Amino acid sequence: MRLPNEVVDLSAKVVAALKARELTIATAESCTGGLIAGALTSISGSSAVVYGGFVTYANEAKISMIGVPFALLRRHGAVSEEVAIAMAEGAMAAAGTDIAVAVTGIAGPDGGSGEKPVGTVHFAVATADATTHTKKLFKDMDRDGVRHATVLQALNMVLKAAKA
User: Could you tell me the CATH number of the domain that includes residue 29?
Assistant: First the structure.
């Protein structure tokens, strides 16, 4: 399957930056269902830096696979800053990588609310030094559009972290 050129080009930059610094990465994905890991592994030679990914679509998967505390999910909901951070840190710990990226959001068309409308996505990138968070609202996009924009945002955040 051929990914969009902008995804392939950005993935190649991320893989090159990770290789240059000898860093490894894991993904923890909810709303993207593995698309970030898929983008990274579309690059030849990515096995040198990509550990793999955790597709944690259900809350139970977030808890059992990467250690997101149930209380955090109950208190803040799966689509929250707190859970995105816990996902990134949990994936990094579970995989033993240098970097982990996590995404959790509402791709739609259903599932949104006044507080968390469709297109709301929380991103987190964990490294040994810090965990960063970003929240985006991708408006006026269909499900595929939200997922595509989420992959690009996540890859850009990883690229920034890999170059830091």
Answer: 3.90.950.20
Number of domains in the chain: 1
Q: What is the pLDDT of residue 93?
A: 98
* pLDDT, mean of residues 111-118: 93
* Residue 141 scores a pLDDT above 90: yes
Query: CB under 8 Å to 14, separation ≥6 — which residues?
Result: 40, 155, 158, 159, 162
- Amino acid in position 68: V
Range of the domain at 115: 5-163
Spatial CA neighbour of 3 closest among 105, 158, 136, 155: 155
d(CA 25, CA 27): 7
Is the pLDDT at 5 greater than 90? The verdict is yes
E strands, the chain, are: 25-29, 50-55, 99-105, 120-127, 131-137
* Prediction pTM value: 0.97
